[in-house]
# Entry
Amino acid sequence: MTTRTFSFAGRTVNRVGYGAMQLAGPGVFGPPKDHDAALAVLREAVASGVNHIDTSDYYGPHVTNRIIREALHPYPDDLVIVTKLGAVRGDDASWIPAFEPDDLVRGVEDNLRNLGLDAIDVVNLRVMIPGNADHSKPGEGSIARQFGVLAGLQERGLIRHLGLSNVTSAQVAEARAIAPVVCVQNQYNLVQRGDDALVDELAAAGIAYVPFFPLGGFSPIQSSGLEAIAADLGATPMQLALAWLLHRAPNILLIPGTSSVAHLRQNLAAADIALDEAAMARLDALA
# Structure
């Protein structure tokens, strides 16, 4: 069995958290289709033991943070809210890099206002290196100037802890030389294993690794294989992919998102799935 909790941002959190991105409208833009349902999902998550919520003020924009505040403020004492900076949204729903110091300061102020907080538990710097053709993957380049801005805001008491998103091992080391890093949020899943070494490096340092797109990038053959194993184990493919991540390393924290209470309950049930060595071997073979 895996451990169910991890020490994160000065608190003990359950390893299956919640990602708020899907609370916004289509394309993570505009209001949700069902506002009351969005509130219900958040309240059900916290009632079910979720105490780690991932969000950003550029989801919507501003939509998810305002829904979180409406649903949960005043927040439970054990709740860790994590946001990210590094982009804004255009009127056409485009994603626009916002990586200059003034952008980052404005982003923190927006998150504080819309979440109704005096200080944010964790702020991730979402890195989009200029010239990198694919912003969904890390690109090498210095992040010292931008991370230093966030470290300054931390010294002012506006941010409690700092994290990174879409980064390389070298960028993690560069940031850690400036201020402590409590989490890294990169793309990683059962078949996209490029961060295997980074996961282990961070585990040794006690730093959380938070994968996004847990089912992204599967080939049809890999998807069929996952479905077959899930059927044998009496789980859904999504549950099995989440369970594999929980077993992969003790520092992995999950933030699956959904706008459905029923789907939320399915995701949380992944923590109850025990995978023996034979099951892990079958799953590892998919990669």
